[in-house]
Amino acid sequence: MLIQLAIMGLLAAMLPLAIVWASSDADKYRKLVWVTVFLTFDLIMFGAFTRLTDSGLGCPDWPGCYGHANPLQAHEQISAAEAAMPTGPVTVAKAWIEMIHRYLAMGVGVLIIAIMVIAWMRWLKSKRQEARFSPGLPTMLFVSVCLQGAFGAWTVTLKLQPAIVTTHLLLGMLLLAMLTWLGARQSAVPASSPDGRRLALSAAVGSALLAVQIALGGWVSTNYAALACLDFPLCHGKLVPEMDFANGFELWRHLGKTGDGDWLPFPALTAIHWVHRNFAFVVVAWLGWLGLRAMRIDATRRTGRRILIVAGLQFMTGMSTIFLKWPLALAVVHNGGAAALVLLLTMLNFEARSAAQAAVNRAATRLSAA
């Protein structure tokens, strides 16, 4: 089974590798990194689809499906489970969704291994002269994707425990951010700006706020609290409804249960939803201000404009999911918006820091020339 799964991972990576190889881009390494960024973004979107369709336990074991490499080989066991519980966690469709997600994840893992190997080879060949091939970050990516795989396994073996599933989401976003930073490192250095340092600090704060909001959103999703409040801007007709923060935000507990093993009360779900909803105003306000500030600097103008657009769309899809009662397609798009903001804020952090460093280097050059 493990050999068959390894072959599936290699097959999933073959198409993007072929695209990179056949590309007219002279810098194949840069192309490979950005293709991997694109596929990681897609993987996060498909992971959201897997979670939102309740397919996380479509194959209740790991890494295979009932000990097999694909649902076809496990058709008898899957059909028996579906017959016993037609609306349960195991169906033929859910099994395929879950395994396709795993195949895609393995494919991204193969691409990251390729990135790490190439970086080490180029770094050693250039006698450690080319900074963009520094293997530290690619090696960290390899460690991160292995850790992400472990949390993927625990997601299944611990039966969708909210803390594990939310951490799995956060690690996926971190992987996207690290890949984006690596991709930005392959590109040309932007124009210098003395304002870059202050913007970089503001962008770092924005990234931290976004990380908290994504964690809260993951907590909403993994606890199935998306429909805990169906009105807006109020919740159950109140500005501050009845809420149970202690049980809602107790981290180590089983899905749908309190830490003591009782059923999770509805006010706990209300608390989870209400906190995520209201913290969104803080995040959108900061990102709006940050985007406008970035647009005043040549080196970050385009990224700042994109942050404004995506943050606005993300807020709109968040509100729409409430009014439309969390339709699947819109919920997946909302997850994709969060991933897009991670990518854009990572780019802004890199551009702002690079612009500030370029300004320092330029000043030093002038001083030495004088």
Automatic annotation (TrEMBL):
<keyword id="KW-0472">Membrane</keyword>
<keyword id="KW-1015">Disulfide bond</keyword>
<feature type="transmembrane region" description="Helical">
    <location>
        <begin position="307"/>
        <end position="326"/>
    </location>
</feature>
<comment type="pathway">
    <text>Porphyrin-containing compound metabolism.</text>
</comment>
<feature type="transmembrane region" description="Helical">
    <location>
        <begin position="196"/>
        <end position="216"/>
    </location>
</feature>
<dbReference type="InterPro" id="IPR050450">
    <property type="entry name" value="COX15/CtaA_HemeA_synthase"/>
</dbReference>
<feature type="transmembrane region" description="Helical">
    <location>
        <begin position="32"/>
        <end position="52"/>
    </location>
</feature>
<keyword id="KW-0408">Iron</keyword>
<keyword id="KW-0560">Oxidoreductase</keyword>
<dbReference type="InterPro" id="IPR003780">
    <property type="entry name" value="COX15/CtaA_fam"/>
</dbReference>
<keyword id="KW-0350">Heme biosynthesis</keyword>
<feature type="transmembrane region" description="Helical">
    <location>
        <begin position="274"/>
        <end position="295"/>
    </location>
</feature>
<keyword id="KW-1003">Cell membrane</keyword>
<feature type="transmembrane region" description="Helical">
    <location>
        <begin position="103"/>
        <end position="124"/>
    </location>
</feature>
<keyword id="KW-0812">Transmembrane</keyword>
<keyword id="KW-0479">Metal-binding</keyword>
<feature type="transmembrane region" description="Helical">
    <location>
        <begin position="6"/>
        <end position="23"/>
    </location>
</feature>
<feature type="transmembrane region" description="Helical">
    <location>
        <begin position="136"/>
        <end position="157"/>
    </location>
</feature>
<feature type="transmembrane region" description="Helical">
    <location>
        <begin position="163"/>
        <end position="184"/>
    </location>
</feature>
<dbReference type="Pfam" id="PF02628">
    <property type="entry name" value="COX15-CtaA"/>
</dbReference>
<protein>
    <submittedName>
        <fullName>Cytochrome c oxidase subunit I</fullName>
    </submittedName>
</protein>
<keyword id="KW-1133">Transmembrane helix</keyword>
<feature type="transmembrane region" description="Helical">
    <location>
        <begin position="332"/>
        <end position="350"/>
    </location>
</feature>
